[in-house]
C-alpha cells in the first residue's frame, strides 16, 4: 500500500508567536492552536511528562501544512548550529511557491527574515531565493515565470 499524502512538517520552536506571525505573513493560515499533553502524546513521541503548545498552519490551497510545537516541559534541546548552512545533513528548508517574490521578501524582512544568498533567476522558469526567518528557520521561495 502506498502513502495517501504528506500531512505536515513539524518545527520545534522557542517563540511560538513570532514563528506563527512569520508564516502568516508568508501567506499561511492559522488552522488551530492549543495545548498538547497527556499519556497519549508521551507514548507517540517517546518522551515522559510532556507539556507543549502546538499550532497548525496551512497553505491557502489547503494541501500543505506546517505544525509548530513549543515545549514547556521538558525543555527543548538544540541539535545543530542555529543557522546551519544549506549543506548540513538533515531537513534544511521548506520551499513555497509564491506570486511576487520581491513583495514576500520585503514583508518577511519585517519579521526579521534575511536573505541567505541572493535572489536569482533560473533560466526563464523561476526566480528563487532562501530566507532565514525566526529561530533560524530556512524557507525557500520560488516564483514561477512561465
Describe the structure.
With 146 residues, the chain is α+β, with helices and mostly antiparallel strands. A hairpin with a 3-residue loop joins β7 (120-122) and β8. The mean pLDDT is 92. The strands form two sheets. Strands 5, 6, 7, 8 and 9 form a five-stranded mixed β-sheet that branches. A four-stranded mixed β-sheet has the order 1-4-3-2, sandwiched between helices. It has helices at residues 16-26, 39-45, 101-109, and strands at 9-12, 29-37, 51-58, 65-73, 94-97, 114-115, 120-122, 126-132, 138-144.
Distance between the termini: 36 Å
Indicate the overall shape: globular
Radius of gyration: 16 Å
Low-pLDDT parts are none
Mean pLDDT score: 92
Measured as a percent range, the helix fraction is: 10-25%
Keywords:
4-stranded mixed sheet; 146 residues; alpha+beta; 18% helix; single chain; 9 strands; globular
Break the fold down into its secondary structure elements and pairings:
Blueprint (H helix, E strand, L loop, with lengths): L8 E4 L3 H11 L2 E9 L1 H7 L5 E8 L6 E9 L20 E4 L3 H9 L4 E2 L4 E3 L3 E7 L5 E7 L2
Parallel strand pairs: 1-4, 5-9
Antiparallel strand pairs: 2-3, 3-4, 6-8, 7-8, 8-9
Please provide a brief summary of the model.
By secondary structure, this protein is of the alpha+beta class. The protein is 18% helix and 36% strand.
